Amino acid sequence: MRSFSARLIAWHEHAGRRDLPWQNTRDAYRIWISEIMLQQTQVATVTPYYQRFLGALPDVQSLAAASIDTVLQLWSGLGYYRRAHLLHRAAQEVVGKHGGTFPRDAATLETLPGVGRSTAAAIAAFAYGERGAILDGNVKRVLARHQGVEGYSGDPAVERALWARADDLLPREEIEPYTQALMDLGAMVCLRSTPDCARCPIADDCVARRTNRIDALPAPRPRKPLPQREVAVLLIGRGDEILLERRPPTGIWAGLWSLPEVPCDADVAAYCRDRFGADVAAGAALVPIEHAFTHFRLRLTPLPCTVERWPTRMEDSGRGAWVWLPLPEATGAALPAPIKKLLRALATTLVTA
Ligand code: SF4
Question: What is the residue-level pLDDT of the chain in tens, covering all 353 positions?
Fold first, then answer.
């Protein structure tokens, strides 16, 4: 039987993806942006964001010089916004510490904010042909199944075992097609719930297949019910405008625009008097929205509010902390996905009403 890598490379030649917008380039910047966007996000979702991002910020200098607002706006809707903050910081580091030239080896790439071992190895492989193992979520699944590695892959001991297998299976040459093949196999064939083993080039010695444990490998995350947090978000309208408030620089949705947020049992009128110096009356709550994060679920209850008095002197005192925008314009701001969805629905209702 041919080696694991030889079978994958041969398979990739006829079945792999070779025309994705970030392929067929040695530009480490373009490769890096794609690798960060593809973390936890599928190719079909990433593609339009990638093209828009590269259109606006075509090189590391332009990204480093851009405001975080611009970066967040381009990222808005992709989720996991920490990636965008780290991307921005890393670009500034490339410009500030590395003279604007991307590091040329995985070890130095890994020192950049947001670039882990696997991402550094993938960038180094695609940009410079450097030999190194990758281990993203899809690859963990492929290796856990093919090599029969038991246990949850988030467990450090299991992860170490997977890295060791990934290193052992690495070919001496053709690292670039091999790396892409492994990624493609995880994304296209060895799928989480419906692996297509009949089309798999490494099926012959796959332990999970041979022992009929495909469903059991990789072992799922040990179950713990996710805690739920509940907040209310204020739909403060004035004519055709809506009030947006900037999120704090840390925590969930850091730095994005959003609706003012209060605890569910807050006195909305008192909050608005303290925060904005305004008289605002809350109306009946709308249907809550659920949003799942990795570690908790968030339940957002929209509260339409009417402005009874908004002092002129407060108009300019938001200093970037809040802003009034016409509703259609607000839906284009750098908003968290559920808030964007809510405002779009609201805009549609108003248009069709
Ligand atoms: S044979 Fe099936 S389970 Fe095994 S690696 Fe291939 S697709 Fe995945």
Answer: 899 999 999 999 999 998 999 999 999 999 999 999 999 899 999 999 999 999 999 999 999 999 999 999 999 989 889 999 999 999 999 999 999 999 999 999 999 999 999 999 999 999 999 999 999 999 999 999 999 999 999 999 999 999 999 999 999 999 999 999 999 999 999 999 999 999 999 999 999 999 999 999 999 988 888 899 999 999 999 888 999 999 998 888 999 999 999 999 999 999 999 998 899 999 999 999 999 888 899 999 999 999 999 887 655 455 678 899 999 999 989 999 999 999 998 887 765 44
**Domain 4-210 belongs to what topology?**
Endonuclease III; domain 1 (1.10.340)
Whether the Cβ atoms of residue 84 and residue 343 lie closer than 8 Å to each other: no
Out of 3.30.1490.20, 3.40.50.2000, 3.90.79.10, 3.40.50.1950, select the CATH number for domain 228-352. Answer: 3.90.79.10
CA distances 98 to 88, 89, 94, 104, Å, are 15, 13, 5, 10
Give the number of the atom of ligand 1 that is nearest the alpha carbon of residue 199. 7
Q: Is residue 35 flagged as an active site residue?
A: yes
Mutate to test the pocket of ligand 1, among 5, 210, 214, 215 (most ligand atoms within 8 A of CB): 214
Q: Which of 140, 136, 169, 168 is closest to 152 using CA atoms?
A: 140
What length is written for the chain?
353
* Residue 196 Cα to ligand 1 middle (Å): 7
Tell me which of 184, 188, 190 to substitute to probe ligand 1's pocket, judged by most ligand atoms within 8 Å of the beta carbon.
Answer: 190
Give the residues across from 231 on adjacent strands: 263, 300
Q: Domain residues of the chain, as ranges?
A: 4-210, 228-352
Distance 122 CA to ligand 1 centre (A): 22
Collapsing DSSP states into helix, strand and coil, what is residue 298?
strand
